[in-house]
Amino acid sequence: MAMIEDGPNRPAESGGRPIRPAFLPSDLDPTVFDEGFLRQLERLLLLMRSPVRGGLKGGRRSVKRGQSVEFADFRDYALGDDLRQLDWNVLARLEKLFVKLFVEEEDVTITILLDGSASMATGRPDKLQFAKRAAAALGYIGLASEDRVAVSVLGGRTARRRIALRGSGRIFRLLTELSSIQPADGPTDLVAAARHAAAQLSGRGVVILLSDLLDPAADRVIRELASTRSELIVLHVLSPDELDPPLEGDLRLVDSETAEGIDVTADLATIDAYKGRLAAWKEGFAQLAARRQATYVDLSTEVPLNELIFAELRRRRVVA
After folding, report:
1. pLDDT band of 49, cuts 50, 70, 90
2. In the listed set 71, 86, 106, which residue is the last one of a domain according to the structure?
């Protein structure tokens, strides 16, 4: 995708407005990520359970005290404090030295972990395509909030981390990065890839995992990521065919990653048993996430992007 840039962080401007490209990457529908939708996303913020410590000044309240315009509290003066922060009005009234404290606004890193395993390329609608669009929307919310946004792709046994972006003008770079992601060729060890991703994290922030969790040890994936200092959000993406299989008769099911097959007879009893185990499987993830103070959201790829962001994730207190 061609794009004119003026400096490292913003698109060139004409008449005070950013120059936006005539099209977006081919597999991220331009009718979805149009100007109006981006403006709606700018009004949202990814929620965090607790204050943060960041590196650069951004749009979030920190546990540190700083020099923003928003007053927070007083404390007693201590030798070495900046005399410019003394409250002279209090000194005149009480003849005591107090230092004014202000809320420090700082940024965090939002790390989006996209499951690139072969199983994500299955389903109608395609799970990987759905995950990339959700990642783009959530990433833009972070960029518009002046947070850093980094994307890592989980494939094989590793997490391939892309460059961290900052500033709403980098949305097109984010879309380009996401558009270039292809499913892994061969099996993926999701636990090993998640462990590798966790090792790349630094400081506290938000980690968003988009995955179908089709790994025998998927509960360990949540444990690995929840053990970091970051707040974890798990978006469990499944296709309609996985939620309600349109199967009947004698069939051979083939694993999309290992090519191993299993013979089944799909009748009403089999489908009912499958749905029962599926519900218990998802409930197990939800309970594990709750114990680890993470957020778990189960999703169908049939959910429209607008409904996902502005209804479902708001209801789950992921964004506000």
Report:
1. confident
2. 106
Sign of CA dihedral 41, 46, 51, 54: negative
Number of domains making up the chain = 2
Closest CA to 113 of 159, 68, 152: 152
> Before 240, cis peptide (omega within 30)?
no
**Within-domain flag for 41:** no
Could you report the per-residue pLDDT of 156-198, keeping only the tens digit for each?
Answer: 999 998 878 998 888 888 998 898 999 998 899 999 999 999 9
CA angle 48, 189, 26 (to 5 degrees): 70
User: Are 261 and 149 part of one and the same domain?
Assistant: yes
Exposure string over 127-143, b if 16+ CB within 10 A, otherwise e? bbbbbbbbbbbbbbbbb
Q: Per the domain annotation, does 27 fall within a domain?
A: no
Above 50 in pLDDT, residue 92?
yes
Per-residue confidence (pLDDT) for residue 30, from 0 to 100: 58
Domain range spanning residue 307? 109-315
d(CA 150, CA 185) in angstroms, rounded, equals 23
- Candidates 75, 73, 150; CA nearest to 110 is 150
Question: Higher model confidence: residue 121 or residue 56?
Answer: 121
How far is it, in rounded angstroms, from Cα 81 to Cα 95? 17
Name the domain boundary from 87, 106, 125.
106
CATH number of the domain residue 193 falls in:
3.40.50.410
Domain assignment present for residue 4? The answer is no
pTM to 2 decimals? 0.77
Residue 182 lies in a domain: yes
Angle between helices 127-144 and 171-179 (to 10 degrees): 160
